[in-house]
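Hey all, sorry for the wall of text incoming. These are the two entities for the joint prediction.
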Amino acid sequence: AQTVTQSQPEMSVQEAETVTLSCTYDTSESDYYLFWYKQPPSRQMILVIRQEAYKQQNATENRFSVNFQKAAKSFSLKISDSQLGDAAMYFCAYLGQKLVFGQGTRLTINP
Amino acid sequence: DAGVIQSPRHEVTEMGQEVTLRCKPISGHNSLFWYRQTMMRGLELLIYFNNNVPIDDSGMPEDRFSAKMPNASFSTLKIQPSEPRDSAVYFCASSLRGQYSNQPQHFGDGTRLSIL
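and here's what came out:
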Protein backbone atom coordinates (compact mmCIF):
# COMPACT_ATOMS: atom_id res chain seq x y z
CA ALA A 1 0.00 0.00 0.00
CA GLN A 2 1.11 3.52 -0.70
CA THR A 3 2.10 5.72 2.22
CA VAL A 4 2.83 9.42 2.51
CA THR A 5 4.96 10.81 5.31
CA GLN A 6 5.24 14.39 6.41
CA SER A 7 7.92 14.45 9.09
CA GLN A 8 7.28 18.01 10.28
CA PRO A 9 4.09 18.30 12.33
CA GLU A 10 4.66 22.05 12.72
CA MET A 11 6.73 24.71 11.00
CA SER A 12 7.00 28.45 11.44
CA VAL A 13 8.54 31.15 9.31
CA GLN A 14 8.91 34.90 9.39
CA GLU A 15 6.74 36.83 6.99
CA ALA A 16 8.51 37.39 3.63
CA GLU A 17 10.94 34.54 4.28
CA THR A 18 11.10 31.19 2.49
CA VAL A 19 10.02 27.88 4.00
CA THR A 20 10.23 24.31 2.76
CA LEU A 21 7.82 21.58 3.80
CA SER A 22 8.98 17.99 3.47
CA CYS A 23 7.12 15.00 2.09
CA THR A 24 8.21 11.48 1.25
CA TYR A 25 6.14 8.66 -0.13
CA ASP A 26 6.40 4.98 -0.74
CA THR A 27 5.02 3.25 -3.81
CA SER A 28 5.75 0.53 -6.32
CA GLU A 29 3.68 2.22 -9.00
CA SER A 30 5.51 3.98 -11.83
CA ASP A 31 2.73 6.31 -12.92
CA TYR A 32 1.21 8.61 -10.33
CA TYR A 33 0.55 12.19 -9.37
CA LEU A 34 1.54 14.24 -6.36
CA PHE A 35 -0.27 17.19 -4.84
CA TRP A 36 0.01 19.71 -2.09
CA TYR A 37 -3.26 20.82 -0.51
CA LYS A 38 -3.71 23.72 1.88
CA GLN A 39 -6.31 23.70 4.64
CA PRO A 40 -6.78 27.07 6.35
CA PRO A 41 -8.83 27.46 9.55
CA SER A 42 -11.94 27.72 7.39
CA ARG A 43 -11.22 23.98 6.78
CA GLN A 44 -11.52 24.18 3.01
CA MET A 45 -9.13 21.87 1.17
CA ILE A 46 -7.46 23.98 -1.49
CA LEU A 47 -5.22 22.55 -4.18
CA VAL A 48 -1.91 24.40 -4.16
CA ILE A 49 0.20 22.59 -6.74
CA ARG A 50 0.41 19.29 -8.63
CA GLN A 51 3.19 17.24 -10.17
CA GLU A 52 2.96 14.39 -12.65
CA ALA A 53 5.51 11.68 -11.89
CA TYR A 54 6.51 11.35 -15.56
CA LYS A 55 7.56 14.99 -15.71
CA GLN A 56 11.10 15.78 -14.61
CA GLN A 57 10.52 19.52 -14.45
CA ASN A 58 9.47 20.76 -11.06
CA ALA A 59 6.04 22.38 -10.93
CA THR A 60 5.72 26.06 -10.03
CA GLU A 61 2.69 28.16 -9.17
CA ASN A 62 3.61 31.75 -8.38
CA ARG A 63 5.28 31.71 -4.94
CA PHE A 64 4.86 27.94 -4.59
CA SER A 65 7.27 25.45 -6.10
CA VAL A 66 8.17 21.83 -5.54
CA ASN A 67 11.37 19.84 -5.47
CA PHE A 68 10.42 16.47 -6.92
CA GLN A 69 13.03 13.76 -6.53
CA LYS A 70 11.47 10.64 -8.03
CA ALA A 71 14.30 8.25 -7.20
CA ALA A 72 14.30 9.41 -3.61
CA LYS A 73 10.47 9.49 -3.52
CA SER A 74 10.58 12.99 -2.16
CA PHE A 75 8.20 15.85 -2.91
CA SER A 76 8.90 19.00 -0.92
CA LEU A 77 7.00 22.29 -1.15
CA LYS A 78 8.80 25.63 -1.10
CA ILE A 79 6.89 28.77 -0.27
CA SER A 80 8.75 31.96 -1.15
CA ASP A 81 7.99 35.40 0.25
CA SER A 82 5.68 33.92 2.90
CA GLN A 83 2.50 35.84 3.59
CA LEU A 84 0.19 35.82 6.59
CA GLY A 85 -2.49 34.21 4.43
CA ASP A 86 -0.24 31.20 3.89
CA ALA A 87 -0.84 30.09 7.47
CA ALA A 88 -2.63 26.74 7.28
CA MET A 89 -2.28 23.00 7.46
CA TYR A 90 -0.50 21.67 4.40
CA PHE A 91 -1.13 18.14 3.20
CA CYS A 92 0.99 16.23 0.77
CA ALA A 93 -1.01 13.72 -1.26
CA TYR A 94 -0.21 10.83 -3.58
CA LEU A 95 -2.59 9.77 -6.32
CA GLY A 96 -2.24 6.37 -7.92
CA GLN A 97 -5.25 4.15 -7.71
CA LYS A 98 -6.28 6.11 -4.61
CA LEU A 99 -5.54 9.51 -3.14
CA VAL A 100 -3.45 9.04 -0.01
CA PHE A 101 -2.73 11.96 2.31
CA GLY A 102 0.11 12.63 4.69
CA GLN A 103 -0.62 13.64 8.27
CA GLY A 104 -0.12 17.31 7.52
CA THR A 105 2.22 20.13 8.56
CA ARG A 106 0.86 23.13 10.42
CA LEU A 107 2.53 26.27 9.08
CA THR A 108 2.60 29.42 11.15
CA ILE A 109 3.64 32.76 9.69
CA ASN A 110 5.19 35.17 12.16
CA PRO A 111 4.65 38.85 11.36
CA ASP B 1 -18.42 27.15 -11.90
CA ALA B 2 -19.76 26.16 -8.51
CA GLY B 3 -17.49 23.94 -6.50
CA VAL B 4 -18.40 20.81 -4.61
CA ILE B 5 -21.37 21.60 -2.39
CA GLN B 6 -21.88 19.83 0.90
CA SER B 7 -24.70 20.10 3.37
CA PRO B 8 -25.17 20.62 6.19
CA ARG B 9 -22.05 22.54 7.18
CA HIS B 10 -22.52 21.58 10.82
CA GLU B 11 -24.54 18.79 12.37
CA VAL B 12 -25.01 18.13 16.04
CA THR B 13 -27.11 15.18 17.09
CA GLU B 14 -27.50 12.66 19.85
CA MET B 15 -26.02 9.21 19.65
CA GLY B 16 -28.31 6.63 18.14
CA GLN B 17 -29.81 9.05 15.66
CA GLU B 18 -29.53 8.67 11.92
CA VAL B 19 -27.29 11.20 10.20
CA THR B 20 -27.33 11.97 6.48
CA LEU B 21 -24.63 14.03 4.82
CA ARG B 22 -25.17 15.33 1.31
CA CYS B 23 -22.89 16.19 -1.57
CA LYS B 24 -23.28 17.73 -4.99
CA PRO B 25 -20.14 17.22 -7.10
CA ILE B 26 -18.85 19.59 -9.72
CA SER B 27 -20.83 19.26 -12.92
CA GLY B 28 -19.04 17.04 -15.41
CA HIS B 29 -16.91 15.24 -12.84
CA ASN B 30 -17.30 11.48 -12.97
CA SER B 31 -15.66 10.49 -9.69
CA LEU B 32 -16.83 11.27 -6.19
CA PHE B 33 -15.05 10.63 -2.91
CA TRP B 34 -16.06 10.70 0.74
CA TYR B 35 -13.36 11.37 3.35
CA ARG B 36 -13.34 11.60 7.11
CA GLN B 37 -10.89 13.86 8.93
CA THR B 38 -9.98 13.49 12.59
CA MET B 39 -7.04 14.69 14.63
CA MET B 40 -6.01 11.14 15.42
CA ARG B 41 -6.26 9.56 11.98
CA GLY B 42 -5.96 12.49 9.61
CA LEU B 43 -7.78 12.25 6.30
CA GLU B 44 -9.19 8.83 5.53
CA LEU B 45 -10.86 7.78 2.31
CA LEU B 46 -14.17 6.12 3.13
CA ILE B 47 -15.54 5.31 -0.31
CA TYR B 48 -15.34 6.46 -3.87
CA PHE B 49 -17.64 6.26 -6.87
CA ASN B 50 -16.81 6.26 -10.53
CA ASN B 51 -19.69 7.00 -12.89
CA ASN B 52 -22.10 6.61 -9.95
CA VAL B 53 -20.86 3.09 -9.18
CA PRO B 54 -19.11 2.38 -5.85
CA ILE B 55 -15.59 1.23 -6.70
CA ASP B 56 -13.91 0.90 -3.33
CA ASP B 57 -15.66 1.01 0.02
CA SER B 58 -12.88 -0.62 2.00
CA GLY B 59 -12.48 2.52 4.06
CA MET B 60 -16.03 2.47 5.38
CA PRO B 61 -15.53 1.79 9.09
CA GLU B 62 -18.47 -0.52 9.67
CA ASP B 63 -21.96 -1.47 8.61
CA ARG B 64 -23.41 1.59 10.29
CA PHE B 65 -21.99 3.61 7.40
CA SER B 66 -23.54 3.56 3.94
CA ALA B 67 -23.16 5.72 0.86
CA LYS B 68 -25.22 6.10 -2.26
CA MET B 69 -24.93 7.96 -5.52
CA PRO B 70 -28.31 7.74 -7.25
CA ASN B 71 -27.22 10.07 -10.06
CA ALA B 72 -24.23 12.03 -11.30
CA SER B 73 -25.14 15.15 -9.33
CA PHE B 74 -25.88 13.83 -5.87
CA SER B 75 -24.47 11.56 -3.20
CA THR B 76 -25.28 10.80 0.41
CA LEU B 77 -23.31 9.37 3.29
CA LYS B 78 -25.50 7.92 6.00
CA ILE B 79 -24.63 6.83 9.53
CA GLN B 80 -27.21 4.76 11.37
CA PRO B 81 -27.07 4.55 14.33
CA SER B 82 -24.54 7.29 15.06
CA GLU B 83 -21.98 7.05 17.86
CA PRO B 84 -19.80 9.68 19.57
CA ARG B 85 -16.69 8.26 17.90
CA ASP B 86 -18.17 9.20 14.53
CA SER B 87 -17.61 12.86 15.38
CA ALA B 88 -15.33 14.28 12.68
CA VAL B 89 -15.27 16.50 9.64
CA TYR B 90 -16.58 14.69 6.58
CA PHE B 91 -15.40 15.87 3.19
CA CYS B 92 -16.79 15.15 -0.21
CA ALA B 93 -14.56 15.59 -3.25
CA SER B 94 -15.00 15.14 -6.97
CA SER B 95 -12.70 14.83 -9.95
CA LEU B 96 -12.56 13.93 -13.61
CA ARG B 97 -10.96 10.54 -13.74
CA GLY B 98 -10.08 9.02 -17.07
CA GLN B 99 -8.06 6.16 -18.42
CA TYR B 100 -5.01 8.31 -19.09
CA SER B 101 -5.46 11.18 -16.74
CA ASN B 102 -6.24 11.69 -13.12
CA GLN B 103 -7.29 15.22 -12.44
CA PRO B 104 -6.93 16.60 -8.93
CA GLN B 105 -9.78 16.23 -6.54
CA HIS B 106 -11.77 19.30 -5.64
CA PHE B 107 -13.10 19.32 -2.12
CA GLY B 108 -16.26 20.67 -0.59
CA ASP B 109 -16.18 22.74 2.58
CA GLY B 110 -16.88 19.70 4.73
CA THR B 111 -19.52 18.85 7.29
CA ARG B 112 -18.50 19.06 10.93
CA LEU B 113 -20.39 16.27 12.67
CA SER B 114 -20.71 16.15 16.44
CA ILE B 115 -22.41 13.18 18.05
CA LEU B 116 -23.30 13.80 21.69
